[in-house]
Write a structure and sequence with these properties.
With about 350 residues, the chain is an alpha/beta fold. It has 2 domains: about 5-85, DNA polymerase, domain 1; about 95-335, Metal-dependent hydrolases (TIM Barrel), CATH 3.20.20.140. It is built from 14 helices and 7 strands. Helix 1 runs antiparallel to helix 2 (about 25-40), helix 1 runs parallel beside helix 5 (about 80-85) and helix 10 packs parallel to helix 11 (about 250-260). The longest helix is centred in the middle third of the chain and has 18 residues, at about 150-170. The radius of gyration is 21 Å and the shape is elongated. About 45% of the residues are buried.
Length: about 350
């Protein structure tokens, strides 16, 4: 029996743990072990597995050592087999149909800001779940707590993405940013640099409790900016733990502006966000808004959280043709360049 790739098996386990929302420390143990395995010569790895000394390596424990040993023996690791056997039950037919139609994800983060994994690893995970593209949207400079990208760092990232795209064809990493919506509704990055990006997500991350009569014009100003493509997690709510209440704004006005300017309202699939609430998502549908079903992934396994958003889209009657990340890549890019352009 030929040996498997132990690092790939460890990362697959980490991916499944992330998708199942297991504790971060458990996920990190498998990703750390995968990095250690990658750094070892193949002969040393096999020798240590045979001698039972893998655990002497920093970053490899009893469980991950067993997984490596089983993988090298050509066996699917027991831990991986158990994870695969206990995956979530299938989603309903309408949800599955929406998920099957999605070609990519328009809101993701890497370790260039507050994500946990390199750009390449995020891209490879997106490829593995069948995406044709992923939009890299690390944070903008104002969000210092998330290591937001200065203009200089963002320009460096564009060069890195170009190199990776040459290697990963036909898959494509689209350039982007999750830009802060400033208090006056302006976007937290140079307009000339925003113009170079494939897609711009704009989100409110500060003064979330400002009065509706101030938040509404703030959001409308951002939506009317020609560089904005997607309005991210519009209420800013958190629905787990102590939670965080929704920001207050005039939803009719905000969604009318989104429909007028061709800006997509994001269905944020993160389980702690599930934003917007269903009552507001229905209002957005009634207003004729485009939507983007995104994960806001900060780690590879989170890229497979889209079904949470797809279920909400199905429940709220979101027309599939209005979901921008169900469009062909050329159509998506034509729309981001000119919001009046839609698929035929």
């Amino acid at each position: 029996m030929s040996e498997r790739d132990p690092a790939a098996d460890l990362r697959r386990i980490a991916f499944l743990l992330e998708r199942a929302r297991e504790p971060t420390y458990r996920v990190r143990a498998f990703r750390t072990a995968a990095g250690v395995v990658d750094g070892l010569a193949a002969d040393e790895l096999r020798e240590r597995a045979a001698a039972g000394t893998l655990e002497k390596l920093a970053g490899i424990g009893k469980v991950t050592a067993r997984c490596v040993t089983e993988s090298l023996a050509g066996e699917e690791p027991v831990y991986l087999r158990r994870m695969l056997a206990t995956e979530a039950t299938p989603l309903d037919e309408a949800t599955e149909a929406i998920r099957a139609a999605l070609r990519g994800d328009c809101h993701t983060h890497s370790d260039w800001s507050d994500g946990g994994s390199p750009i390449r690893e995020m891209a490879e995970a997106a490829i593995a779940i069948g995406h044709e593209y992923v939009v890299l949207t690390d944070h903008s400079p104002r969000l210092t707590v998330a290591n937001g990208l200065s203009a200089e760092r963002l320009e460096q990232q564009l060069d890195v993405v170009a190199e990776l795209n040459d290697e990963l064809k036909p898959f494509r990493i689209l350039t982007g940013i999750e830009v802060d919506i400033n208090l006056d509704g302006t976007l937290d990055q140079k307009p000339s640099l925003l113009a170079r990006l494939d897609l711009v997500v704009g989100s409110v991350h500060s003064k979330l409790r400002m009065p509706a009569e101030e938040m509404t014009p703030r959001m409308v100003a951002a939506i009317s900016n020609p560089h904005l493509d997607v309005l991210g997690h519009c209420t800013g709510r958190l629905v787990v733990g102590r939670g965080r209440p929704e920001s207050e704004f005039d939803a009719d006005v905000v969604f009318a502006a989104a429909a007028q300017f061709g800006v997509a309202v994001e269905i944020n699939s993160r389980p702690e966000r599930l934003d917007p609430p269903k009552r507001l998502l229905r209002l957005a549908v009634e207003a004729g808004c485009l939507v983007s079903i995104d994960t806001d992934a900060h780690a590879p396994g989170q890229l497979d959280w889209q079904p949470y958003g797809c279920e909400r889209a199905a429940r709220c009657g979101v027309p599939l043709e209005s979901v921008v990340n169900s469009w062909a890549l050329d159509d998506l890019l034509a729309w981001t360049a000119d919001h009046s352009v839609r698929p035929a």
